[in-house]
Design goal:
alpha+beta, globular, four-stranded antiparallel sheet
Length: 91
């Protein structure tokens, strides 16, 4: 599974509508409205690296109101949930 984090700048007046359209794209697991320089952050989870391009470049970037994106590919995940599961099986 490939995880990409997409930082999105969008038209602020239409943020909810844009976020809903992005969330409806197959491969987008979550969309967060955030504070700071960014407007939205989308989590993209796909099977193949080429699928990131299909989701981001071919669909997400074409949502009306998306002004710019920056995509980061995650190569390792750390979470408290993962650590708890590992300890529960004796690792």
């Amino acid at each position: 599974m490939i995880t990409a984090i997409v930082f999105i700048q969008a038209e602020v007046a239409r943020l909810s509508e844009i976020a809903e359209q992005i969330a409806a794209i197959d491969g987008v697991s979550e969309v967060y409205s955030v504070t700071g320089e960014l407007d939205l952050v989308a989590m993209v989870r796909v099977r193949e690296i080429d699928d990131v391009s299909s989701v981001v470049a071919d669909q997400l970037n074409k949502v009306d109101g998306v002004l710019s994106t920056q995509t980061q590919i995650a190569y390792r995940a750390y979470s408290q949930h993962d650590l708890e599961d590992a300890f529960s099986i004796g690792l």
